[in-house]
Amino acid sequence: MKAEHYVGGVFRSDGASFPLIDPANGAELGTVPEATRETVDDAVVAAKAALKGAWGAAGAEERAAAMRRIADGIQARFEEFVEAEVADTGRPRAFAETVDVPRAAGNFRAYADLLYGRPERAYTTRIPGWSTGTGEALSYTVRRPLGVVAIISPWNLPLLLSTWKIAPALACGNTVVVKPSEETPSTATLLARVIDEAGVPDGVFNLVHGHGAGAAGEFLTGHPGVDAIAFTGESATGTAIMRNAAAHVTPVSFELGGKNPALVFADADLDAAVDGTVRSSFTHSGQICLCTERVYVERPVFDEFVERLAARAKELDGYGPMISAEHRDKVLSYYRLAKEEGATVVAGGGAPTFGDARDGGFYVEPTVLTGLPETARTVREEIFGPVCHVAPFDAEDEAVDLANDSPYGLASTIWTTNLSRAHRVAPRIETGIVWVNCWNLRDLRTPFGGVKASGIGREGGEYSLDFFSEPVNVCIQI
C-alpha cells in the first residue's frame, strides 16, 4: 500500500519523502510523503469547509449509515488491512487478524449503533419547565460537534487506536485531520481509500503523514483552525502537544504511557496468574500501553512465580520485533541499565539471533528481572518493551502502596481468588483501569483512560461522545 495524503477528497504525495522500514527484517518497504505546513493547512481548511456542507447538515441516521459503510469497507478489504498492519508493525499475523482489523471495523459499528440507537445522547437533554419568579422557563441542552478534530495515533496499534478516535468524532458530526505515526502509515492510507469509496463527503476525513516535532504533528496540533486534539502516545509527546494546544486553549484528550503494576496474592490461581502475566508483559513484545512492567508477588509464592514466569519467557517464540532500530536500542539500553543498577536477570536480557532474515530486524528477548529497589530507573521509567521486574511483598497495604508509587496510572491487574480482597483492593489502585484475574478484557462501552502522567479524559462508549461534542444550554422564557 503506497502511503499518500488524503486532503479534501484528493489523494496526493506532496512533500519530501522518507523510507518506511520493515521492523521484522530491516528492509525498506517503500517511502512516505512528509506533509508540509501547507499540506496541513489545506487539510484543516478542507475540514472546516466540510462542516458547512452536507456533513454539517447530516442527521444522526445519515452519519450512522456512513459509518456502517466504512465498517463494511474495512471488512471487504480485511486481507489488505492485515497485510499492511503486519508489514508496518512486524507483529504476528494472528494478532492483526483477531484484534486490529476486527476491532477497527467494530469501532465504526459500535458508534453507529450508539448514535442511531440513542440520538438524543448526542443532541438533547430536556429539563421540565420551572418557575423563575417572573414566569416559567424551559431549559434544554443541545450537543453540537466541536468542529475540526486533530487525531494523532501511535505506531503500536495504528489502525485500532486511530479508529477508536475517528469513529466517535465522526459520530458527533465533527470533521477530522488524522496524522498516524510516521512508522506505520499504511493502514491509515488504506482507511482513507475505504472512506473515499464509502461516499463520505470530501473534507470530512483528511489524512496527513509525517513526523512530530517541527513537522506535520506540530503543524497540526498548533494550527489555529483545529478545535480539539485527541492523542494516544508517550507522555513526553503529550506534554509537547499540550504546550502547542495552550496557545489556542484547544481542548485535549490524551491516552499516554504507563508503568503498569500487577499484584499477585498468595491465594491466586498461580497457573492463571503466570499465564496472564505472560500475556500482559510480552504481548506485542510489550509494545502496548496497557502492558505490565512491574509485578508484585506475595512472598509465600514469590520464588515459584518467578521460576515459572522466567521459564515461560524463555520458551516464547513468534513474538514480534520492536518497531524500529531506535526503539530496539532504547529497550536494550534499559536491559544494560538494569544490570548496572544491580538486577538479577532470570530470563532474557539481550537481543536474540535466529539464523534467518529476522537477524536484520529489531528484536529483543522477553526479559524477567528481579532484585531492584523501587527507586531504580528501570522500575520507575516506562520501557515499552517485553520486560517486567518482579518484587515480593508481605501485606495487602504494602502491595497497594507499591502499585501506587508511580508517576503513571493507566492500568493494573490483581490476581486473587478472594472476592472480598478483589473488591477491597481494586478501588484503591490509582489507575484508570483495574483488571481482576484477567488482562486487556475490553468492552467498548466502558471508560478507557489513565490518571497522573497516563492521560487526560476518558474514551469509550458515551464517554467519547462527551469529549467529541459540546453541550450548549438553551433557556426559553415561557
From TrEMBL:
Recorded hits in CDD domains, A to Z, give: ALDH_F8_HMSADH
Q: What's an example of a GO molecular-function annotation for this chain?
A: oxidoreductase activity, acting on the aldehyde or oxo group of donors, NAD or NADP as acceptor
Which segments constitute the Aldehyde dehydrogenase domain? 14-471
Per the Swiss-Prot or TrEMBL record, the active site comprises: E255
Judged by the first EC level, this protein's enzyme class is: oxidoreductase
Q: Which domain of life is it from?
A: Bacteria
What Enzyme Commission number does this protein have? 1.2.1.85
Q: What is this protein called?
A: 2-hydroxymuconic semialdehyde dehydrogenase
Q: Which organism is it from?
A: Actinomadura bangladeshensis
Organism placement in taxonomy: Bacteria, Bacillati, Actinomycetota, Actinomycetes, Streptosporangiales
